[in-house]
Amino acid sequence: MSSGVTQRHRIGIVEDHESVVMGMAAMLSDEPDLDLVATASTVAELLRATVDLDLAILDLRLVDGSSPKSNVETLRDAGVETLVFTGAENPYLVRSAARAGVLGVVRKTESRETVVAAIRTAAGGGQVVTTEWAAAIDGDPGLSEVGLSPRQLEVLELYASGEKAVRVARLTGLAPQTVNDYLQRIRQKYAEAGRPARTKTDLYKRALEDGWLPYPERPSDT
């Protein structure tokens, strides 16, 4: 027989825009099973306030400049699962958080009903499967997978971000010829996937497309 007692989930939010925090508080105020018990502008601040949480709602861009990956890992180390709540304007940041093991990614532009339902699902330990989350995990479905190894990815990220091959060799501990061999193999894999990358600029573009490098920041309109 049911006791009739509603299980209440304790929610924390990491967000440095006051208006978003106020909006989240308003959305959850009438929900009998969701209690917003802590708000903070950084993950460290949230964990200092409390670790007794069922879920942390995390913005990707925070004033302290912390990375989504490190934030998600820090929360998980504290026993707190994460739901990303974002404008999703930067595919790299979304993909970085997704790889760290978040329960889902929800856009700030979604309806109240969608956001609350996502929070409820995640607070109960379930995955929130949205287009943004799936795309972050799988990459752009329109882009053929090239299947790079972890070592090849390391070389690609360094080289495509602007480092010379000799510098990549020093940073990775590889021989210069090994780095060149890796680059040749990376180019070959992209070509086989129908996404040729003959030049360094091409490799940079492919790394952006696949989420291995962040998109350049747009200058603010001031």
Automatic annotation (TrEMBL):
<dbReference type="InterPro" id="IPR039420">
    <property type="entry name" value="WalR-like"/>
</dbReference>
<dbReference type="Pfam" id="PF00196">
    <property type="entry name" value="GerE"/>
</dbReference>
<dbReference type="InterPro" id="IPR036388">
    <property type="entry name" value="WH-like_DNA-bd_sf"/>
</dbReference>
<dbReference type="InterPro" id="IPR001789">
    <property type="entry name" value="Sig_transdc_resp-reg_receiver"/>
</dbReference>
<feature type="modified residue" description="4-aspartylphosphate">
    <location>
        <position position="59"/>
    </location>
</feature>
<keyword id="KW-0238">DNA-binding</keyword>
<dbReference type="InterPro" id="IPR000792">
    <property type="entry name" value="Tscrpt_reg_LuxR_C"/>
</dbReference>
<dbReference type="Pfam" id="PF00072">
    <property type="entry name" value="Response_reg"/>
</dbReference>
<dbReference type="InterPro" id="IPR011006">
    <property type="entry name" value="CheY-like_superfamily"/>
</dbReference>
<feature type="domain" description="Response regulatory">
    <location>
        <begin position="10"/>
        <end position="123"/>
    </location>
</feature>
<dbReference type="InterPro" id="IPR058245">
    <property type="entry name" value="NreC/VraR/RcsB-like_REC"/>
</dbReference>
<protein>
    <submittedName>
        <fullName>Response regulator transcription factor</fullName>
    </submittedName>
</protein>
<dbReference type="InterPro" id="IPR016032">
    <property type="entry name" value="Sig_transdc_resp-reg_C-effctor"/>
</dbReference>
<keyword id="KW-0597">Phosphoprotein</keyword>
